[in-house]
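Issue 218. Parser rejects a valid record. Input:
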Amino acid sequence: MYKRVFRDGILLLLPIVLTFALSRPAIALTEEQKLVSEAWRLVNRTYLDDTFNHQNWAVVRQTILKQQLVDKDSTYNAIEQMLASLDDPFTRFLRPEQYRSLQVNTSGELTGVGLQIALTKTGQLEVVAPIAGSPAEKAGIQAHDQIIQIDGIPTTKITLDEAAARMRGAIGSRVSLMLERQGDSREIQLVRDRIALNPVVAELRSSAQEVPIGYIRLSQFNANAVTEFARAIAQLEKQGAEAYILDLRNNPGGLLQAGIEIARLWLDQGTIVYTVNRQGIQGSFEAFGSALTHDPLVVLVNQGTASASEILAGALQDNDRAQLVGEKTFGKGLIQSLFNLSDGSGLAVTIAKYETPNHRDIHKLGITPDRVVSLEAITREQLGTEGDQQYQAAVELLRSTSVVAEHS
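Output the parser choked on:
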């Protein structure tokens, strides 16, 4: 190739010297690095906080990839380290066995002690609620108890999912928990058992002098919750229920969609919940059909009422469909989505926050009941009886509501 140049009136054809910048050959990622990158991309695309806890998320990836990732264990540790930089206990890595266990927990049987747990801001393992009828509930473990050790291992040295895995195990096997409540510590020996995952208990409560009350206790929002709940209402309606008490105490939540669908069973119309993503874009879920009943409703809540339970309670309260009785709820207003990774592990990623129909953000604040009633520690057998002050307050409220309705 030549370029044309005029010099002193003479046309010269001068050769063009081409130079090429040699690009550095792309370095192929190892399988371990690919898994880290896969996890990083999922968080990069979906995580609620687009500042990633005020850090450069791309630099975090580069730093992690420089580590010696020689096997699955070192790779998993690296992903956990990467997610820990977000300072969000609800966004976490799930090793294959943990991911499978979580899927079972929302859809099938579970063997263990029956505790729903979370990490506090200080990294302390905390009880959200014991599952109804579980060994943990029978031993008297309560919401907000701190779990200090599991079989002698400090919980500050293990992840949330490692703690859950250590409490699961074969039926009949034992596990030791060191608990702390209001400064007092004690050790409890628990025997693992099969945890019943049918979350609905329903019964008609009536006498000749009282309004027939349908009492429904919902222990968690799993895949069976909506069907079982609708069946319970239908049965109670046939039995003549004229008012309802919905007991959400110590319900730690579960599937978001289950909470929304159960709200629709009570509402003809209205917003159930707003969701807000990282762009600030609001979505909403609405009631759009016919409620199964329009009878008066009271909802029982306490410090163990969390997540999807708070969505349901907030929807019923803000739509004036129910009054809440009990104690302030737990205060978890974040929504996680599960993602499976290519090797069978998974991620739980905080993708949005939710607001009640009146745009209340209850994260770390909880929902305050319409009527605050404290409750001394009682056994599971005492729930919904004369020894249950919160239940008795709900009954009295329904009696007065029904009397007003009869004379209106």
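Fixed in the parser; the record now loads. The longest strand covers residues 346-355.
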